[in-house]
Amino acid sequence: MTHSETLVLDGGAVADRIREGLAPRIARLKERGVVPCLATVLVGDDPASATYVRMKGNACKRLGIASIRVELPAATTTEELVAAIRGLNGDAAVHGILLQHPVPPHIDERAAFEAIAAQKDVDGVTTLGYARTAFGLADFPCCTPAAIMAILAHYELPVSGRHAVVIGRSPILGKPVSAMLLNADATVTTCHSRTADLPAIVRLADIVVAAVGKPKFVRGDWIKPGAVVLDAGYNPGNVGDVDYAACAAHASAITPVPAGVGPVTIATLLKHTVDAAEKFGA
């Protein structure tokens, strides 16, 4: 498989399709007097996180979704953050709450995630959200895993019966995408920093999901000819977790970084916010 024959999985096209489906639903909600609203909570001044929050706010504005930005100083305590989230839980005008990850290290991130009300957990970050994802019952699965599944579906790439290797086991990416692939009848191997002979395992994969947070971590010679490669990483300098050129030379299909998984993740977040407004809005 040469690079020129590799299908580039354009996240922008998938995101456009999702947004097109949302516009009439938002219009119908507004006719009922309900304006879908996403609240983003940002703690501290991490520049990448600030950029992500701004992008999400701009995406809301373009579709006519209201957005509230809650910005808290880096010195915020776990208790103060939980109180802020509970305040949003009690605001009937807010349909979705997104706590931007990561939070400063002194904060108990899990406690903060757990404070998000289930009906407003539009990024599937609570333990209940993860459990419902594992059972295939989630209203709002984690947005990046859901985006990966949306890309596979959009391009009609087969999952059932395929061997998927997920590199990474975070509770908001590696673990839930492993569950979603398993629910779609893939055979799933979840790898991590303690995995022995990782390259040998990746070479068995029909589908590779890279979610490890290390630039160009996945090498070209790890990729089985014809495998599908989904890069969920985003590192400084617009670099993913996959060595793109080297992996594309072997893959049948691959997501670029940027313009791959990222745009679909944001579109999925907007979709979940609209879903929540329809299901739980006044």
Automatic annotation (TrEMBL):
This is Bifunctional protein FolD. NADP(+) binds at residues 168-170. HAMAP family: THF_DHG_CYH (MF_01576). Pathway: One-carbon metabolism; tetrahydrofolate interconversion. InterPro entries: Aminoacid_DH-like_N_sf, NAD(P)-bd_dom_sf, THF_DH/CycHdrlase, THF_DH/CycHdrlase_cat_dom, THF_DH/CycHdrlase_NAD-bd_dom. Keywords: Amino-acid biosynthesis, Histidine biosynthesis, Hydrolase, Methionine biosynthesis, Multifunctional enzyme, NADP, One-carbon metabolism, Oxidoreductase, Purine biosynthesis. Coiled coil: none annotated. It comes from Paenibacillus artemisiicola. The keyword Oxidoreductase applies.
